[in-house]
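Homework help board

Subject: predicted structure for assignment chain

Our instructor gave us this sequence and asked us to write out the predicted structure in token form, then describe one feature. I got the tokens but I'm not sure how to describe them. Can anyone check?
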Amino acid sequence: MDLSILSKDQRKRYRQIARVLVNHGMGFVLPKLDVPWFRRILKKKYSKDVPMPKRLRNVMEELGPTFIKLGQFLSTRRDILPDEYTKEFGKLVDEAPTFLYSKVEGMIEEDYGKPLDKMFKEFEKKPAAAASIGQVHHAVLHNGDNVVVKIRRPDIENTVNADIGILRTLAEFAHENISDLRSYNLVGLVEEFRRTMTREMDYLKEARNTQRFRRFFKDNKSVVFPKVYMDLSTERIIVTEFIDGSRPDKWVKKNPSKEKRKKIAKLGSDVYLKQVFEAGMFQADPHPGNLLIIKDSRIGFVDFGMIGYIDEETQEKLANIFIGIVKQDTDLMMKQLLQIGAVNGRIDRQRLKNDIARLVKQYYDVSLKSFSVQELVDDIHHIMKDHDIIIPPNFALLLKTLIQIEGMGRMIYPDYNFIEATKPFLKKLLSRKKSVGSIKERMTEKLYEIVNLSGELPRRMDNLIWLLEHGSLRMEFEHKGLRGLLKRISSSSNKLSISLVIASFIMASAIIMNAGFQTFGMVVFILLGFIGVVWLFSMLFIK
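My token output:
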């Protein structure tokens, strides 16, 4: 790899990455990258007892925000990565050191055009929390409102963009030079990760996401989505209402009654499932830090930087997956998985059907109480991976979110049952799909598609005719099951050729004998007789 084309800062970062890799026993990667100085740092020792997935997680933690986020991103891609890696990456905690208060003051003055004390009546210098992208401070506005101020890390955008540039270069190099990695589309993964990071670093997007959820749940008085102060929010700063509540993991330690735990688990689960099956957008990282239990048994939801989206068609497919499991319908399950995933090459449909049938039978007579979304998603990922079916990133994110919803529900109330909680939403979704209005809407959409296609047909036909006229049309055929037939045809033609040759020689020998060359004609006749016996033997006994 030619590092001379890189800037000084990029070369410095490459060396830092190389040293961290070596420190954690992953120096074997460097010769593949063909960096000229790798031998100078390969002498360092490391513990060989540490498993490779853990080593890689340690590397990501040491390399900082971009790589921590990369690990969290990869933890959702269980359709392409081994389980031991995705599980290890799932342990990455988005925590980071705080940055100086002077930096906070500087950014506020830059974005608002006024000093901090002109914008806030009170502002806590010590951060309440710090993560890879930003940190949080409690503050009070001049009107007395208690607020939370989240501020992006100084220069985080440049750091992330530089790291992603390095990741893209490494991905391109790996794609071109390491054939075993080509099927993973590393360049596409890096680009997908870049889009995710770009969205998360833009706090204005997070502010708008928060407003959407707040509007959608405005009639539900049992849940709280924070008010956003849009006039105080920028790409680097977001100001929201302060919600006074306890994290679920801390709340359960106060030993609330079983009834309260059940109520809170159901309420939280209903909100998350409503996001998935009705809102079409969902908080894609529902961990205990993003949920607050308020004293009057309400729930507050915070942090909407990571959002997933699901259209109506995918909602229906997800519902049918659960219905296929409950009803033991292999064909329904197979149809949904094939429609959701992207088939990477050929697929053995019968083998896939057999695997799905085994999956479905595993849940026969399984009580709802013992049903586990985690196990079901594991099984689905194994089947998809085994048959080289790629799950779309947003659907992989959705599956991870469902696992987290179940985990949160069981942490709050151990008897929480995901399928039981999902039933009302599945029924509502399917009844909505069967309604006259929904059928009419879908028919209108299909009719619109047909009209669009009919408008496209003349242009496409014109292109096809042009290709035919200029001899540029290429057609590829693949024969299946013709090898035996071709062999038999070839064998028959060979035998026919030999028969004609022998018949010709027999006629020639007869003519020679009649012409007076008795001895020569007899020799030819005997020779042809021998050839005929050999040929007859081959016809009867050699297939």
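Reply (TA_rk): Your tokens look well-formed. For the description, you could write something like this. The mean pLDDT is 81. That's the kind of observation they're looking for.
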